[in-house]
Design goal:
Elements: E1 19-20, E2 25-33, H1 35-41, E3 47-62, E4 66-74, E5 76-80, E6 86-90, E7 94-97, E8 103-107, E9 113-121
Antiparallel strand pairs: 1-2, 2-3, 3-8, 3-9, 4-7, 4-9, 5-6, 5-8
């Protein structure tokens, strides 16, 4: 896979529309990174979504063939655990859901909740992960100037 993207792409919240997700209750999303965009960046990613669950809304119980990392950014939710129990969580909490595990997230508050959902393909032959390297450059672009 070759990386085609060579410039930083900026998506402003104002330019993104909330699309209703079918087959769920009061679930809306904005796609932050599509599979096609991930390919252009040279990364293994199915999708990254910014999701909003309306009051009384729910991502209905489901499972999929990818890992999902869900970070709650706004509001209160409840998570359906594999044993059938619902447990409350709030903004700042993160769920790491393995592929094939039944799960659901429901709004548990009186205002919409929001979350970032990251969908990562599972590859049993993938090489081991490593922490990324950062190279500092001379500060000619400082915001303090």
């Amino acid at each position: 896979m070759t990386t085609a993207a060579k410039e930083t792409k900026v998506l402003t919240g104002d330019s993104m529309t909330w699309d209703l997700m079918p087959n769920h209750i009061e679930l809306y999303h904005r796609e932050i990174v599509s599979a096609e965009e991930a390919d252009a960046l040279g990364i293994r990613m199915s999708s990254i979504l910014w999701e909003k669950i309306g009051v009384g809304g729910q991502v209905l119980p489901h499972y999929h063939d990818v890992v999902e990392v869900i970070h709650i950014t706004v509001g209160q939710v409840k998570l359906l655990l594999p044993n059938g129990e619902w447990k409350p969580y709030q903004a700042g909490d993160t769920f790491q859901v393995p592929a094939g595990v039944l799960h659901s997230v429901a709004n548990a508050g009186d205002t919409p909740s929001e979350q970032i959902s990251i969908f990562v393909p599972v590859d049993p032959n993938a090489p081991g992960n490593a922490f990324f390297n950062t190279t500092l450059v001379e500060d000619v672009y400082s915001a303090k100037k």
